[in-house]
Design goal:
The complex is a heterodimer.
Chain A: E1 2-13, E2 18-24, E3 36-40, E4 48-51, E5 54-56, E6 59-65, H1 69-74, E7 82-89, E8 103-107, H2 112-123, E9 129-134, H3 143-149, E10 152-157, E11 164-165, E12 180-183, H4 186-195, E13 200-203, E14 219-222, E15 225-228, E16 235-237
Parallel strand pairs in A: 8-9, 8-12, 9-10, 10-11, 12-13
Antiparallel strand pairs in A: 1-2, 1-7, 2-6, 3-4, 3-7, 5-6, 13-16, 14-15
Chain B: E1 6-8, E2 11-13, E3 17-19, H1 28-31, E4 60-63, E5 66-69, H2 78-92, E6 97-101, H3 106-117, E7 122-128, H4 139-142, H5 145-156, E8 163-166, H6 174-183, E9 188-191, E10 195-197, E11 200-201, E12 206-207, E13 214-217, H7 222-235, E14 240-242, H8 249-258, E15 262-265, H9 267-271, H10 275-289
Parallel strand pairs in B: 3-15, 6-7, 7-8, 8-9, 9-14, 14-15
Antiparallel strand pairs in B: 1-2, 4-5, 5-13, 10-13, 11-12
Classes of the chains: A alpha/beta, B alpha/beta.
Amino acid sequence: MRQEYLTILENRPLTEAMWKLVLQGNVDAVTTPGQFVNLKLDGLYLRRPISVCDKQNGTITLLYKVVGHGTAQMTTREPGDVLDVLLGLGNGYDLDASGDMPLLLGGGAGVPPMYWLCRELLAQGKHPTVILGFNTRDEVYYEEEFRALGADVIVTTADGSYGIKGFVTDAMEGLEDRYFFICGPEPMLKAVYKKSRASGQLSFEARMGCGFGACMGCSCKTITGYKRICKEGPVLRKEEILWDA
Amino acid sequence: MGRLSVNLCGTELDNPVIPASGTFGFGYEFAELYDINLLGTFSFKGTTREPRYGNPLPRIAEAPSGLLNAVGLQNPGVDKVISEELPKLAKVFHKPVMANVSGFSTDEYVEVCRKLDAQPQVGWLEVNISCPNVHGGGMSFGTDPQAAAEVTKAVKAVTTKPVIVKLSPNVTDIVSIARACEDAGADGLSLINTVLAMRINLNTRKPIIANQTGGLSGPAVLPLAVRMVYQVSKAVRIPVVGLGGVGSAEDVLEMMMAGATAVQVGAANLVDPYACKTILEDLPAVMDRYGVKNLTEIIGGAH
């Protein structure tokens, strides 16, 4: 973990609720797709954890969903503004376990970490299939960006207004034996966990205190003991998850 | 003896800045960022007889100028603290550490304190009778003078190390509890633990924290803590460790003027992992600005 002051290069809406924020500076501490950063915002005491969508050329890209005071305030920040950021937080995905044809699943605000992961897997010569799940057509984002990487992309919407009607699990038919990486709301994680016959890695969300392992605010029970979502997570292996914890 | 040094229950501290229990783990996360030997000492994660997972999630909520937590004393249990955490700590921290002890019965406090008493790394036992986030223990000892005295007396009987009793602000008369602990033999007092609080999610119409209530800490509670440190330190002769919302060198001076011999920093560590280091770097200049030559001269200066 490092604390850095990063400069905003870009901060604009992608859909009604999702925004794209690009930060420039020393981002060396961010090493692995699936990690997150923790942003200090004016007038709020706790930092706000946001997953890293991409890291390139001394910048990191964060895609965030506006859900409360913190994220609403983030939309008001302008290019040139400087943010106090703790970065390089969490374990991230272990790419070595992926196999040649991994399945990447992102749901709603859980899509972002799949992007850098997808790019890295492609760079390793793997052939990922990406399933992106949204509620409705207006909420779809980053489909073109994923296609531009050269991945196979399937989009689902719960109301059927775009792509395949249903949930990401409906697009998984025939792909249940692929090693999977997933980030999204917990019901989605659980559904994919049940449907998949393969192993995989799941990224979890939690209300955090510090984001770097000090406060025990986000500990969960796993088969291999207690884990802090912010430190030993947010990515857990399928085999270690205890859903009722 | 430097201008920052203070004496806490017979042990000289290089400075009065002490990360508070529950905000600093067992030190390692912070030792990766800076040399934690800069600190006066630190109070490690509240330790109980048995391992505890703590409360269900969510355990954390934002508050105006602070946060609520209901971690519920998650810790590996005293035996593992001694066999695993203390040896690891010895590699990164070379000063006496403050051992924070919690329990659900007088027997449990006694057993944990007896075990920690045998550890040479432990400089002080901070007996937490004020955790608001567990049921049937913790704070129930700290809200009744007689129960507080009983725990203090029982713990004192099994240790030669200084016993600092950590008090709850969730009482009508904190001075009577403080006096009861002093009369029962406490070597020092630390206050305040967090303030019992609640936040409600407007969407779900339910408390945000799974435990319903949590403890409020952060700058929001600083004035409350300063008032209680002032009242208690005026009423007792044993040293008081002040905590509650401290986040700057100025806050340290204020707490000491209120009567604190040493000062703990809690919530600030969670939002700024360098908070204690920054406070220590700022202290000499801030002391100069207010004409303070040595910190010891201002303890209780507001009385």
